[in-house]
Amino acid sequence: MIIQNQYDNFWKWFKKYSEKLFYYEKNGDVLDELGDELRKINENLTFEFGPSDNNKRDFTISADGIQEAFPFVEKLFNAKPLLDKWNVQKFRRRGDLSLVITINNFTLYPNDIKYLLFPDKNKIGLLLFIKGFDDNKDKFIDLAYIFLDNALGEYDVETKVGVINFCDWTCSKTEVSEYFEQSKSIESFRTDFDNMYKKMNSFNTPGGC
């Protein structure tokens, strides 16, 4: 009962400050307060707002990619009240595959990524070839995980992706050259991922062929 009250109390707070949150560009401090309220439920919870569109905004509750926090996202989402101005969503959604990602003046371009998918038990393993990876491994890994969240969505990355291996395009000159030759440009990444997971899942389902 105490736990349920936490969810109810959050939404009471959200409704009270709904107007300030909707126009957060003019009320920056309210975002810090929103973060504090979410962390009362679970320390890993975070959020995203979408742009204002026809007097509506998306409010996305996220576990920040931490699977242990997923149940808190689900329960908070399920406890949501009717909110006239808000479209409440759970977990970060898929975005545009052509997105250029920049952090601290360091940029990852979609054309600099190639991929290869492979079965990893009941998940999908990834081999990502990133141009220039060997020169800036730590930065590219951070950018690659943001890319994956954007390409597949937070939920699928945590529940459907298995092992992830990274390699520079210079791997084409080493013992893994055959894998680089099989790799594909990023345009078909999402479609190939969904098709492979669907095919794998059909074999694990009674009656699947």
Annotate the secondary structure layout:
Elements: H1 2-16, H2 18-22, H3 29-41, E1 46-49, E2 57-62, H4 70-78, E3 86-90, E4 101-103, E5 106-108, E6 113-120, E7 123-130, H5 137-152, H6 154-160, E8 161-168, H7 177-182, E9 184-185, H8 189-203
Parallel strand pairs: 2-3, 7-8
Antiparallel strand pairs: 1-2, 4-5, 6-7, 6-9
Helix pairs in contact: 1-3, 5-6
Question: Would you kindly provide a written description of the structure presented here, covering whatever features stand out?
Answer:
With 209 residues, the chain is of the alpha/beta class. It folds into 2 domains: 2-90, no CATH class; 101-203, no CATH class. It is 41% helix and 22% strand. It has 8 helices and 9 strands. Strand 6 (113-120) and strand 7 form a beta hairpin. Helix 1 (2-16) packs antiparallel against helix 3 (29-41) and helix 5 packs across helix 6. The longest helix is centred in the last third of the chain and has 16 residues, at 137-152.
